[in-house]
Amino acid sequence: MITIKRLFSGVLASSAIVSSVFAGPLEDYLSEHDQAYFTYEEAEGFNANPSYILEFAEGDTWTFASVDPRGPWSLNGNMVWSADVATITFPENENVTNIAFMNFSFQSDSFREKWGDLVADQLIAASEQGLIPSGQIELRYIVKSAEIASRGQNTNLLTSITLQNQEQLVIDQNIIDNLEGGWQGSTTPTVDTDTSVLGADPAFEIYVKGFSTAEFNVRELFTGKWALPIYTGVTYYNQSQEFESYPEVAHDIFEFGTSTPSVEFGLVPEYHYTDSQVQLVYGNTVLTYEPVEEKSELLTVKVTVNSPNSNFVFLDTAVKATPSFEQFARGLASHFPFTQVAYINGRFAYNYYDNGQLDCFGIFGYVFNRDDFSINRGINCAEGEGDGRDNDSIRLPSADNWSWNMNNAKLTMSLNAGLGYVFRERYWDPITFTENGIGVVLERSIVEQEGFGQRGYFIAPRLNYVKLTDLSQYTAEYANGGFGGDIDGDNIEDGADTDDDNDGMPDFYEESFSLNHLNSADRDEDLDSDGLTNFEEFTLGTYPNDSDSDNDGILDADDPTPLDANKQSRTTYDYDGDGISDLVIRRPDIGQFIVARSSDNTIMRAFFGSQASDIPLAGDFDGDGTTDLTIRRQSAKQFISRTSSDDQIGRIFFGSKDEDIPVIADYDGDGIDDIAIRRPSTGQWFIQYTTTGEIVRETFGTNDSDVPVVADYDGDGKADIAVRRKDAGQFIVRYSSTDTIDRVFFGSQATDIAVPADYDGDGKADFAIRRPENGFWYIKHSSDDVIERIYFGSEAGDIPVVADYDGDGKADIAIRRPTSGGWIAKLSSDNSYARFYFGSLSTDIPVSGPLETVLNMTPSASATNSKADTFGVFEIDSGVQLIKETIAPKANWSIDEVKSID
Fold it and tell me: What angle do CA 794, 799, 803 make, to 5 degrees?
C-alpha cells in the first residue's frame, strides 16, 4: 500500500522584475507579467488547462507551481537567466513536492542498484530486527530545479520546461537509534532520478501566457448557478472493499446567493466576495476562486485550498449554467453513425489529426436510442496492424447492457442487472451548450459490486464535454468496422452523402434535433406539435424539437416572428424604413428633430419635446423596423416616444434618479426595443422587457464612471449589457447568449471614444474606438480578430456618427464636424467617401453619436426653455434638399492592419 501526503509552500505576489538590456523574448515577456501559466495548446472550443504557473515573489525569487489538480505542488526558488533560458533552483529541504510511505523489496537488485549496497544492507538488517513494523519507508519526491527555455513563436510564445528530479529516503529515528552497529551514512539518502521535459517535442508544444486575476469583477461574474471545482471527501469504490472517504478535487454545482445545497455533495457554503475573489466556506475548508481566463464559454480559475490537512493551489475549469443546456438535452438521442462523443480526452490540440478530427483512440461515444431507451455505450476505435489509420476500425458495442432515462434534463445511464454489479449508474447534469456545439455536463458514476453492501464512486464528479460527431467521416475506420453503404441509392456513399434519406434536411441537422437521418418520412412529421412540420422548421430556422423556439410564449406556427432575433436584422436611425440609416440631429434650443431621409434626400422636421434638456434617443418601440422619435425627460423621469406605425405618443415613467442614464435596446430579442436605464452610483441596470413586461435589475459595471456601450456582441439578436471602463482601457460585456462576462482590453487612453458596431457584417458588434488626438479609428473585427486602423477625421472635435449609410448591413465609419456642419462617411459597400452638409449649428446634437457625446451636448435642466410642450409628427420641408457629394479621399486617409492599438 502507498500512502501519499502532499506538501505545498506559500505563494507570494508582488511586482515583476525588469528585464535586462540583452533579454530575449521569453525574459522580456515574463518581465511584463507577475503571473504566467504554461499549457499545451487547447483544442478549438476549449479553454486553457495549464500544467504549471510561474509567479513573481520578490527580487530574483519566483514561485513555480504544478497546478494540475491531480498532483499540485509549489516551490520558491532563485531565477537566473542565460541566453533566454531561465533556471530556477530550489533550496535544499524546501524542494519536496510529494511524500509517500512505500513498501520496498530491500533484497531486490533494483533497490540495491538504485540506493546502493550500504543503504540496502542496513535496511535488510533493520527489517530483520523488526525495526520496520509497518514495512514502509518514507520516500520524498524532490525537484532540484526547473529550466524554462524559449522555443520560438507561432501565435503564442513557445517554451519547454525541464525538471531535475530526485528521490530521497527518510530513515526513521527508531532505525537510527536501534540498528545494531548504528546507522551508517546519510539519514536522508538521495539519488537523482529522471529528468522531466515538456514542450521539446514539436507534436506536444507548450506555450506561456501571462494573466492577471484582477481583470475580472467576481461580484458581477459569479451569479446564478455554476459548476465549480471543489475539494471535499470522496468515497471511491474499489475492489478491496475499503470505502474510506479521501479528500479529492471534484466538481459540483452551486447556486450563488442562495442556501440551496450543491447538486452532488449537498454542501451549503458561505459566499464571501471581493472584487477579484470569491470564497466558498464549508466545514473547515475555505476555497478561494480567482478567474484567470475565459475562453469558449469556459472559465479557467485559480483555486486556493485551505483545509486542516492540505493547503495548495490548482487551476481548473468552472462553467456558468445557462438555459442553452435545454437544447443539448432535447437533442441527445441520435442514430449511428451520429454519436454523442465525450471529448474529455479531446481538450488539447495534440489530441487531433491534421484534418481536425479527434484521434480515433480518443473516441468514447454513446448512441441514445429513442425507440427502446437502450444505449450503445463505449463506441471506440480498435487498432489494426501496422502504422497509420488505414487498418484501424470503429467498434459499435451492443445496446443490450445499458439503458437511459431523463428527468428534468438530468440523464441517468443504468447498467442492466448482472456482470457482477448490484448497481452501476452514470449521471449527466447538463450545464450549458456552447456555440461550438459542446454540451458541458457534470458527470459521475456510482457502483456497488455484488457482496460489497456499499456504493462508491467509480468516477468522481467531474466535467465532461459531449459533442454530436458523425463517425462516418472517419472514412477508413468506418469502412473497416463493416459500416457504410448507399441507403438512398444515389451512388454516393452514406459517409459522403450529406442527406442520406433525400428529405431535403441535412443529416447533421436532423440528428442535432433527434430526427432520423435515415427516415424521409420525418420530413412531414411535427416532432414538437407546434403546428409546423419538421421541414418547415428547417426552412424557417426554428427548432423542430422545441415548440417555442424564441421562448416568447407563442407556438412557432402562431408566431409571426418565431425566430431568435438574430435572424431579424434592423437598421438603426432608419426613419423612413428603407433599410438605410438617415442623418438625424436634434436642435435643443427649439425642441426639434431634423432628419435627412436617405430614400429621397428630403428633410423632415418634427417638434418633439420642447425642453432643451430632453435627451434625444433612437429606438423601435412598435417593431415595424422604422425608428421612432424618442426622448428621455430627466426632470419628469419619463421616456416619451411616438411610434411610427400609428403616430401614438407613449409615456413611461421609468428611472427615478436624476443620474439615471437611458440605455434603450432590444435586450430580449423580440425585435422591439426595451426601456432601460443604468444608475452609475450603484452600477445597477433596470430593464423592462417588452415580451413580458417584467422589470429586470442587474448589477454590472461597479465604477460610476463606466460608460454604457450596449450592443449585440455575441450575435444572438439580443443586446448585451456592456460598459467601457476608460481608466482601465477595457470593454466589459455580459453576453446574453451565455450569461458570461468578457473583458477586452482595447484602447488604453482615457480619451478614446468607444464606437462598437458591426463593421464586418457578421451579425456581431465589433470592439472599436476613435482616438481624437490623432484621428485614428481602431476596429477589432469579430469575424477574424483582425485589428484595422483607419485614419479618418483629423479634428479632435469631430464626432463619430457610426451607422449603415449605404444599406449593406455593415456599419460605416463617419464623423460630423460641428464647426462646418459637414458629415463624412466611408461607405463599406464600395469604399467610397460621401460628404453631406446637414445641421448648420454647432450645438445641433447628432442622435447617432456616442451616448456619452449626446448626453454631454444636451443642455442641463437649468438651461431648459419654457415653451409649451409639443409632440408633433414629421413634416417634409419641401424647400430644402440634403446636399450630398462623393469626394476623393485625402492622401493621409490610410487603412492598415495592426497587431495592437497601443
Answer: 110
How many C-beta atoms surround the C-beta of residue 147 within 10 A? 17
Rounded Cα–Cα distance for residues 96 and 169 (Å): 12
What spatial distance separates the first Cα and last Cα of the chain, rounded to whole Å? 58
CA 292 to chain centre: 11
For 367, half-sphere exposure in the C-beta direction (CA atoms, 13 angstrom radius) is 22
Q: Which three cell numbers, joined as nine digits, stand for 256?
A: 450563488
Can you give the length of the chain in residues?
Answer: 902
- Which three-class secondary structure string do you get for 424-460? EEEEEEEEEECCCCEEEEEEEEEEEECCCCCCEEEEE
d(CA 690, CA 695): 9
Tell me the domain boundaries of the chain: 3-211, 216-320, 325-484, 495-563, 583-898
Question: Is the bond into 337 cis (omega within 30 degrees of 0)?
Answer: yes
Pick the closest to residue 375 from 335, 423, 407, 317 (CA basis): 335
How far, rounded to the nearest angstrom, does the alpha carbon of residue 83 sit from its chain's CA centroid?
Answer: 37
Domain 216-320: assigned CATH number: 2.40.128
The predicted model gives 152-174 an average pLDDT of 94
- Give the 3-state secondary structure of residue 244: coil
Reported confidence tier of residue 563, pLDDT bands at 50, 70, 90 = low
User: Is 583-898 CATH 2.60.120?
Assistant: no
Q: Which residues pair with 233 in a beta bridge?
A: 247
Measured in whole angstroms, the distance separating CA 42 from the mean position of its chain's CA atoms is: 13
Q: Report pLDDT digits (tens) over 797-811.
A: 999 999 999 999 999
Cβ contact 759:783 at 8 Å:
no
Supply the DSSP string of 713-781, one letter for each residue: SSSSSSPBEEEEEGGGTEEEEE-TTT--EEEEE---STTPEE--B-SSSSSSPBEEEEETTTTEEEEE-
Question: Looking at residue 472, what is its pLDDT?
Answer: 93
CA–CA gap between residue 732 and residue 746 (Å, rounded): 10
- Distance of alpha carbon 468 from alpha carbon 334, whole angstroms: 9
The H or E element spanning position 218 is: helix 218-221
- In angstroms, what is the C-alpha Rg of the chain? 33
Helix (H) or strand (E) holding 328: helix 325-330
Q: Which residues, 6+ apart, have CB-to-CB distance to 762 below 8 Å?
A: 715, 781, 782, 783
Q: Say what percent of the chain tops pLDDT 90.
A: 64
The answer to whether residues 582 and 686 touch, using CB atoms and an 8 Å cutoff, is no
CA 54 to CA 63: how far, in whole Å? 6
**How many other β-carbons are positioned within 10 Å of the β-carbon of residue 436?**
15
pLDDT at residue 814 above 50? yes
Q: Among residues 753, 781, 776, which one has the least CA distance to residue 765?
A: 781
Is the Cβ–Cβ distance between 813 and 894 less than 8 Å? no
Q: What would the grid cell of residue 262 be? A: 450543491
Contact 825, 834 (CB under 8 A): yes
Contact indicator for 730, 705 with CB cutoff of 8 Å: no
Contacts 24+ apart (CB under 8 A), 105-108: none
pLDDT tens, residue by residue, 668-718: 887 899 999 999 999 999 998 876 666 778 889 989 999 999 999 998 888
Q: How far is CA 873 from CA 114, 600, 609, 646, 669, in A?
A: 94, 19, 11, 11, 28
Say yes or no to pLDDT of 4 above 50: no
Residue indicated by cell numbers 461515444: 365
**Distance (Å, rounded) from C-alpha 143 to C-alpha 73?**
10
pTM score: 0.64
DSSP 104-153: --TTSHHHHHHH-HHHHHHHHHHHHTT--TT-EEEEEEEEEEEEEEEEEE
Ramachandran area for residue 194 (φ above 0: left; ψ -120 to 50: alpha; else beta): beta
Q: Smallest Cα–Cα separation from 517: which of 488, 477, 542?
A: 488
